[in-house]
TrEMBL record:
It holds the Pfam family HMG-CoA_red. This is 3-hydroxy-3-methylglutaryl coenzyme A reductase. The keyword Oxidoreductase applies. Belongs to the HMG-CoA reductase family. PROSITE patterns: HMG_COA_REDUCTASE_4. InterPro entries: HMG_CoA_Rdtase, HMG_CoA_Rdtase_bac-typ, HMG_CoA_Rdtase_cat_sf, HMG_CoA_Rdtase_NAD(P)-bd_sf, HMG_CoA_Rdtase_sub-bd_dom_sf. Gene3D superfamilies: 1.10.8.660, 3-hydroxy-3-methylglutaryl-coenzyme A Reductase, Chain A, domain 2. Pathway: Metabolic intermediate metabolism; (R)-mevalonate degradation; (S)-3-hydroxy-3-methylglutaryl-CoA from (R)-mevalonate: step 1/1. GO terms for biological process: coenzyme A metabolic process. NCBIfam families: HMG_CoA_R_NAD.
């Protein structure tokens, strides 16, 4: 067994790499060379990245692509997307162009409420706790003034603090359920700082509440943390057009396409196995923009999937209808995003992405991200109910297979042309490539 390592975080970057390469690899020189190859030659830029996290050894690249032609609320956007999956950006661009010719996307922010909770245990009389909470509530606001001052200047702050009795779920469990407006910041630090102060104030003032017995004074704080479930931080995006405008070529019948499309959404609405994959396709678009704009895609993923299951069954995040000859397709999702704070003013490519989007505020970014999800889903479902997904996907993946086979640029150009009218599968490419190689040996 490998011996545990002490004080690793104190090692220099070189020492960390040396330990790693010597401990886990046969060819430590090759490993060291590979890791260093990904360092940026601009030392200042590299240091910035090193300091984002602990124990950095190198950078891990993801492509940053652009999906142009997104018309959202009558503004044209080129949308930045950080993602590794080959067909995602192409699909988004295609959907953007398709809807550009049909009036573009309409998006609206429905609400912007953020949530945080202080979870605690109390084993006394509930009415006394309720009276204590009412008596201490002004103090909760007062004690956080130093934290909320700047946020209030920007139009945000604490909006509500409520005592919730959760004892039906867990003996002795109560919480302070708190809501916040954090304007253009995602607000995690602000919310957590407020919550930790609430907890301190709430716990430390019980002694002066005369109604409590000695035991009741012993409120036990378990934890104070924001929630990534934000069902009241909602954005809606929609596209619509006459059904007759849905076709791009004479091979697809517009009515049949619309009907099949709506059926596909209905299936995702009722069948969780399909809903998960359907929503995964939506997240292809959402995560890529969230990542490119320096937001927390894990928080967004967790919140959106919880929302997809809010009625007790996991379901599609998008909806579609055909009524009076009009096709409508929409999405409604919770998105807690920031355009100030966090990585937004630190990571040079995030700054660039936000500038490219016209320095959006958080609400505008919510709209852009929701549209990216809707567009991605449109592209996926359209392929699924017409050509099937593999055609477009494998065309994009062809380059990856050729790269795995170490094809030259000339060979890649040859095979892109060769597979124009053929079905791309991994084995078809391998076979064609080896035949080509033997002929050109
Ligand atoms: C692949 O990354 C995403 C899809 O599977 C989504 C879908 O099935 O709707 C194509």
């Amino acid at each position: 067994m490998i011996a545990p390592i002490a004080g690793f975080s104190k090692f220099s970057k070189e020492e960390k790499i040396e330990w790693l390469a010597n401990t886990y690899f046969h060819d430590s020189e090759a490993v060291t060379a590979l890791l260093k190859k990904y360092w940026n030659s601009d030392e200042k830029l590299q240091k910035l990245h090193d300091e984002f996290i602990e124990n950095t050894i190198t950078n891990f690249y993801l492509p940053l692509g652009i999906a142009p032609n997104f018309l959202i609320n009558d503004t044209m956007y080129a949308v930045p997307m950080a993602i590794e999956e080959s067909s995602v950006v192409a699909a988004a661009s295609k959907a953007a162009k398709f809807w550009l010719d049909r009036g573009g996307f309409k998006a609206t922010v429905l609400s912007t409420e953020k949530v945080g909770q202080v979870h605690f245990m109390y084993f006394g009389a509930t009415e006394k706790l309720q009276r204590y909470f009412e008596s201490i509530k002004p103090e909760l606001f007062a004690a956080t003034k130093h934290i909320t001052k700047n946020m209030e200047k920007r139009g945000g702050g604490i909006t509500h603090i409520e005592l919730r009795d959760k004892t039906d779920d867990l003996n002795g469990y109560f919480q302070l359920h708190c809501t916040f407006e954090t304007v253009d910041s995602m607000g995690a630090n602000f919310i957590n700082s407020c919550l930790e102060q609430f907890a301190k104030t709430f716990e430390s003032n019980t002694a002066s509440f005369a109604e409590f017995s000695a035991e009741e004074k012993d409120i036990q704080i378990v934890m104070s943390i924001l929630s990534n479930y934000v069902p009241n931080c909602l954005v809606r995006a929609e596209v619509n057009c006459p059904v007759a405008d849905l076709t791009e070529n004479e091979n697809v019948d517009a009515d049949e396409f619309a009907e099949k499309f709506v059926r596909a959404i209905q299936i995702a609405k009722t069948e969780p196995y399909r809903a998960v994959t359907h929503n995964k396709g939506i997240m292809n678009g959402i995560d890529a923009v969230v990542l490119a704009t320096g937001n927390d895609f894990r928080a967004i993923e967790a919140g959106i999937h919880a929302y997809a299951a809010k009625d007790g069954r996991y379901t599609s995040l998008t909806d579609a209808s055909v009524k009076d000859g009009v096709f409508r397709f929409w999405i409604e999702i919770p998105l807690s995003l920031g355009t100030v704070g966090g990585l937004t003013s630190l990571h040079p490519l995030v700054k660039l992405a936000l500038e490219m989007l016209g320095e959006p505020n958080a609400k505008e970014l919510m709209q852009i991200v929701a549209v990216a999800g809707l567009a991605q889903n449109f592209a996926a479902v359209r392929s699924l109910v017409t050509t099937g997904i593999q055609k477009g996907h494998m065309k994009m993946h062809l380059i990856n297979i050729l790269n795995q086979l170490e094809a030259t640029e000339e060979e890649k150009a040859y095979f892109i042309n060769y597979f124009k009218d053929k079905t791309v599968t991994h084995s078809a490419v391998v076979n064609a490539f080896s035949e080509y190689k033997s002929q050109h040996a």
